[in-house]
Amino acid sequence: MTTISEHDDGTHPRVEPVSRRAGDWAVEVHGLSKRFGAQVAVDNVDLLVPRGSAFGYLGPNGAGKTTLIRVLLGLTRADSGTMSLLGIPVPIQRGRALARVGAIVDEPRFHGHLSGRENLKILAAARGGGAGKQIGPALDRTRLTQRADDKVSAYSMGMRQRLGVAACLLADPQLLILDEPMNGLDPAGMREMRDMIRGLTGEGRTVMLFSHLLDEVERACDQVAIVDHGKVIRQGPIGELTGAAGTHTRLEDWFLSVTSRLGEDQ
Predict the structure, then answer these.
(1) What is the spatial order of strands in the sheet that 175-179 belongs to?
(2) 114 and 201, same structural domain?
(3) What is the pLDDT of residues 67-106, one digit of tens each?
(4) Which residue, of 142, 157, 172, is where some domain finishes?
(5) Which residue range forms the structural domain that includes residue 127?
(6) Alpha-carbon distance 90 to 93, whole Å?
(7) 260 and 191, same structural domain?
(8) Which member of 99, 192, 228, 242 has the lowest number of beta carbons within 10 Å of its beta carbon?
């Protein structure tokens, strides 16, 4: 459960946890910032992602979504703030945390002249441990078993996206971080991705979906954080946020109203 409260200056609301322990969060971020010269890509972000949820990190292109992923994964260093994944502080214990995390950053890329199964074998060999044993289950989970021995160059965009998720599953992760996984998909591909996300959370995993596609986030996710100009301006269960004014609206209408308000504040 969450509550929404105002900052001391009366501006952008934040979400505060109620009756939750630190270990209940799959992702916990406090005061996180990242600058590139004069540009602020991530601006004092507070973020709480409940375990076992499908959580949408929603914002327009250029809002700092991919930068946040890179900071969480230790691919770039934050300028300030603290963060943890699955209750494990990062970057201090990055290796331990990422052993239980699967992530797609930008569009997944594979060797087109190799089959899907061969690509996964290469990735599993690089990861080591028991990753090789996860290839079959990962292909089954992403509905790629029947096409696993076809060359990736013959895959549709949706199949390549699902192969990317299969690659994430080689680690048997508790947290999946997916960057724009529905980009370029046709309606059937989007539905397959939604069903797969629901199936993964049904297994107790947490899926964090970074996207600018409002309708798909509304259909796929339980909770959402709205980001604009690097700031998280709202977060919480979608139904509570869109119904906060007493009448339930579509996420798209509510998103446009709160981001417009942010522009007025600035």
Answers:
(1) 101-104, 175-179, 206-211, 54-58, 223-228, 231-237
(2) no
(3) 999 999 999 999 999 999 999 999 999 999 999 999 998 8
(4) 172
(5) 107-172
(6) 5
(7) yes
(8) 99
Q: What's the pLDDT at 166? A: 95
Task: Return the structure tokens found at 28.
Answer: 């916990």
- pLDDT one-digit tens code per residue, 186-237: 888 888 889 999 999 999 999 999 998 888 888 899 999 999 889 998 899 9
Over the stretch 27-76, which tens digit does the pLDDT of each residue have?
Answer: 999 999 999 999 999 999 999 999 999 999 998 888 899 999 999 999 99
Query: pTM to 2 decimals?
Result: 0.83
Per the structure block, which two tokens stand in for 156?
């549709």
- What are the φ and ψ backbone dihedral angles of 134, each rounded to 5 degrees? -90, -5
For residue 59, which amino acid is it? G
**Do 224 and 254 touch, CB atoms closer than 8 A?**
no
CA 243 to chain centre: 24
Using CA atoms, how far apart are residues 46 and 14, in angstroms rounded to an integer?
8
> Cα separation of 200 and 130, whole Å?
20
Pair 47, 225: CB distance under 8 Å: yes
**Based on the domain organization, do 242 and 137 belong to the same domain?**
no
Q: What angle do CA 130, 86, 124 make, to 5 degrees?
A: 20
